[in-house]
Amino acid sequence: MDVNGITFSYDGRIDRLHDVHTTIQQGKITTIIGPNGCGKSTLLSVMSSNGKPRQGEVILDGKAIMRYRPSELARRLAVVHQQNEAPDDLTVEKLIRFGRMPHKTMFSSDKAEDDAAVEWAIACTNLEQRRFRTLEQLSGGERQRVWIAMALAQRTPILFLDEPTTYLDMFYQLEIMELIQRLNLEYGLTIVMVLHDINQALRYSDVIIAMKEGRIVSSGHPHDILTAALIEEVYDVQVVIRRDAEAGLYIVPMQAVLRPV
Ligand SMILES: Nc1ncnc2c1ncn2[C@@H]1O[C@H](COP(=O)(O)OP(=O)(O)OP(=O)(O)O)[C@@H](O)[C@H]1O
C-alpha cells in the first residue's frame, strides 16, 4: 500500500494531514505513534477509504483506494476501530459472523467457507468457551478479542487496529499484542496499528511511523528511529533508552518538557 501525498481536512478549512507519504510493507507490522490529536486515527481512516483526501491518493494493489467498491475493499482490508458498539444481547458467534458480510452477494454465499472463517477467527482469538455468551457477559479484554475476531472473519490480508490495547490491564494488553504478533508471523497478515505505549511499539513493530501535527516526522525500524531526540521532538518528553540482556531495548519516560504556549 502506498500513501502518496495525502492532505486531508474534515471541514475543508483546517488540514489535519499535510502531504503524507509512506509505504506500508506487505507482511510486516507497522505502528503509527505520536501525541494525542496528531492525526494517527485520521491517517488510518484515510488509508481505509473512510474519508476523501483533499490531495493525494492511497494505492492498494495498483489501484486507488477510492475506486474500490466497499465490499471489494472489505475483502482486502479489515479495520478494528477504537470504539466499537453492538447490541449487548448479541452472542459472540453471531457478532463474529458479521465479518462475513463482504463475502456475501445478493444471491449466494458459501456457507462452508463462512463457517470455516468464523471457526478460524474464534480459534485464533481463543473464544471457543465464550461463543454463546453475549457481549455484556464478557470482560474488556475478551470484548476486544471479539472485535478482532470479527475483523479476522473477513479473511483479509491486511488488518488495521486503532489503539487495540487501550483500557486493558497488563495481562490483556500482552494477550492482544501476542495475538497480533501471531497473526502476522503464522498467517502473514500485514498489520497497521496505532499504539500509545512506546515500549509495545518498540517490541512488536517491524516499522514505526512517528507523527506530529499531521506530518510524518520519521519512519523506519524501531531500533533505528526511536532515539531520545526523536521522542522528545514528537512527545515533548525526555526519556532514557536502556538495553537489558533479557528484556532487550526499553524506554523510560523521565520528564515532560514544558514549553511556553
Ligand atoms: N470527525 C472529526 N471532525 C473534525 N475534526 C476531527 C474529527 N476527528 C478528528 N478530528 C481532529 O483531527 C485531529 C487529528 O485527530 P486524530 O483523531 O486523527 O488524532 P490521533 O492522533 O488519533 O489522536 P488520539 O491519540 O487522541 O486518538 C485532531 O485535531 C482532532 O480534533
What is the approximate shape? globular
Number of discrete domains: 2
| Overall residue-averaged pLDDT value | 92
Number-wise, the strands total: 12
What is the CATH level 1 assignment of the largest domain? Alpha Beta
Helix content: 25-40%
Strand order of the largest sheet: 6-7-8-3-9-10
From the alpha-carbon coordinates, what is the Rg to the nearest angstrom? 19 Å
Bound molecules: adenosine-5'-triphosphate
Number of DSSP helical runs: 9
CATH architecture of the largest domain: 3-Layer(aba) Sandwich
Distance between the termini: 38 Å
Give the low-confidence spans: none
Order of helices and strands: EEEHEEHEHHHEHEHEEHHEE
Backbone structural class: alpha/beta
Name the CATH homologous superfamily of the largest domain: P-loop containing nucleotide triphosphate hydrolases
Approximately what portion of the residues adopt beta-strand conformation?
25-35%
CATH topology of the largest domain: Rossmann fold
Quick overview:
The chain has 2 domains: 1-76 and 156-235, P-loop containing nucleotide triphosphate hydrolases (Rossmann fold, 3-Layer(aba) Sandwich); 86-155, no CATH class.
Reconstruct the topology from this structure:
Elements: E1 2-9, E2 15-23, E3 29-33, H1 40-47, E4 55-60, E5 63-64, H2 70-74, E6 77-80, H3 92-97, H4 111-124, H5 140-153, E7 158-162, H6 170-187, E8 190-194, H7 198-204, E9 207-212, E10 215-220, H8 222-225, H9 228-235, E11 237-244, E12 248-256
Parallel strand pairs: 3-8, 3-9, 6-7, 7-8
Antiparallel strand pairs: 1-2, 1-4, 4-5, 9-10, 11-12
Helix pairs in contact: 4-5, 5-6
